[in-house]
Specification:
Order of helices and strands: EEEEEEEEE
Number of strands: 9
Helix content: under 10%
């Protein structure tokens, strides 16, 4: 059975909202190393370094390259603020 898109991902930049969609997983370039978020991940706040945010929605892998940022994870909602 394929995973369901049950994580609400929102990516903001200082200029605009870049993306808002439901995903089944997302990985980030954390300053302490790359990490992945799946459904029901523990609450977390982390800084991000230059790299690629990779997420899967509807079985399709997509990505966004960033310079720096922060991510907050809580209750299947992932909010990201980045500079591109």
């Amino acid at each position: 059975m394929p995973p369901t898109d049950s994580i609400h991902l929102i990516i903001h930049s200082p200029e605009r909202t870049i993306l808002e969609k439901m995903v089944c997983k997302v990985s980030f370039p954390g300053t302490k190393g790359r990490f992945m978020v799946l459904k029901d991940h523990a609450p977390l706040i982390s800084s991000l370094e230059e790299g690629r945010i990779v997420f899967v929605s509807g079985g399709v892998e997509e990505n966004i390259d960033i310079k720096t940022g922060f991510v907050e994870i809580a209750y299947n909602k992932v909010t990201v603020c980045v500079e591109l």
